[in-house]
Amino acid sequence: MHGRHGRSPFPQPQGAVPPKSREEVHENRRRRRPRSPALVPQPRPRLHRLLAAAVVVGLVLVLALALCLRFGSDEMWWIEIVRYVPFPAYLVPALLLVACAWPLGWRWRALALVAPVLAATDLMGLAVGSPDAGGGARLRFMTYNIKSYLARKTPDGYAKLAWEIAGHDPDVIVMQDAASIESAEQLPAPMAAALKGRQVYVQDQYIVASRYPLSHCAPGNMSFSGQEDNFIHCTLSVAGNDIDLFTAHFVSPRDGLNAARGRATGGLREWETNFSDRMAQSIQLSAAVAKATHPVIVAGDLNADERSPVVRRLLATGLRDAYSSAAVGYGYTIGHDLRPGFSFLRIDHVLVGRDLGVAGCQPGGREGSEHRPVICNLLVTP
Question: How far is CA 377 from CA 62, 140, 194, 332, in A?
Fold first, then answer.
């Protein structure tokens, strides 16, 4: 029983400990309660530290590679080798970085996802273009490395090429690697049928065929390392508008790549020479393009990616790549006849001046040649 003010009416025995307040009781209970392990900071396991380090290093390497491939200069010949690596060599390690980041939590996973995004876009050469709108005459244009020396070795080799050409029905087509065909009169029957109704010009390894008038066709010099080589320059007249048309086939990187991989003599020095030869050809062709007085089309097998200094030299004259300007995708044109079995490089290009529109662009089929053709719908305005 307690008194009026909450105190016991009975006296406390001598030496007794006064009762604790309610607040003191709760505080003592809280101190005696064991601390939850979840609230105690745990040291990060060694494996997690290693995974985090791998993710950071991997991201730095992917970013550095992307910057080198996009902004590499003429002196960075060594980085050019990487452009010819099949894209799974980029994409698979990038996906492995995401797997490494998975045990580290969502923030690390999101950070690691930057690697496959960079690989699938910048490293693999994703184009995100938009077709030009507007009027003018439509010109269906096609470039095709036909590898005629291979086509002549099989009974249906030229028939496959003719089928590809007829299927796309271009108004103008430029062909490279056609040295097995020495004149328009010597066109194999399937090719002659596919090109029927077009004016045909044949010179060295090149064939130019057009439904529109061609004039002033002649070779131009782009020799390298003491070896003679040329491009073709024609004047093309479309709906009363003259166009300077160039087609070229730059020296193949095949020998340089084989040397760099130890499959041929010369090693990296041979690769450096190969890259310098293609740069020399690009410089000479760019000089001819710079002198053109009409809208320009440059098309052919340039044996280089659009971001390579070899192609950027031509783009610096005021040209743009038709595929990356008007299409969405990768547009790969070669690789399907190599060991990977699928196309993984875009080295065949149609480059156009700013005064020509691009309504669409796409690669063709793989059946006729080691190279897929590139087919573009161009807009020619007065």
Answer: 35, 5, 19, 18
pTM for this model (two decimals): 0.85
Strands (E) located in 212-315: 214-221, 230-238, 241-249, 296-301
Could you read off the pLDDT of 60-88 as tens digits, one per residue?
Answer: 999 999 998 888 877 788 888 888 888 88
Residues 6 or more apart whose Cβ sits within 8 Å of residue 210: 171, 172, 173, 198, 199, 236
**Strands across the sheet with 241-249, in order?**
214-221, 230-238, 241-249, 296-301, 348-353, 319-321
Q: Where are the domains of the chain?
A: 46-123, 130-380
205 three-class SS: coil
The C-alpha atoms of residue 121 and residue 182 are separated, in whole angstroms, by 42
Report the C-alpha gap between 160 and 162 in whole angstroms.
5
Other CB atoms within 10 A of residue 380 CB: 20
pLDDT digits (tens, 9 = 90+) for 319-375: 999 999 999 999 999 999 887 788 999 999 999 999 999 999 999 999 999 999 999
Q: Is residue 50 over pLDDT 90? A: yes
State which amino acid sits at residue 135: G
| Cα torsion angle, 252, 255, 256, 260, sign | positive
Specify the residue for token string 């430029």.
174
DSSP letters along 14-42, please?
TTPPPPPPHHHHHHHHHHHSPPPGGGSPP
Q: Which residues fall within 8 angstroms of residue 7, CB to CB, at 6 or more apart?
A: none
354: DSSP letter = T
Say yes or no: domain 130-380 is CATH 3.60.10.10. Answer: yes
**H helices then E strands: how many in the chain?**
12, 14
Sort strands 137-145 and 172-176 into parallel, antiparallel or unpaired.
parallel
Q: What is the DSSP string of 130-185?
A: -PPP--SEEEEEEEEE--HHHHTTSTTHHHHHHHHHHHH--SEEEEES-TT--SGG
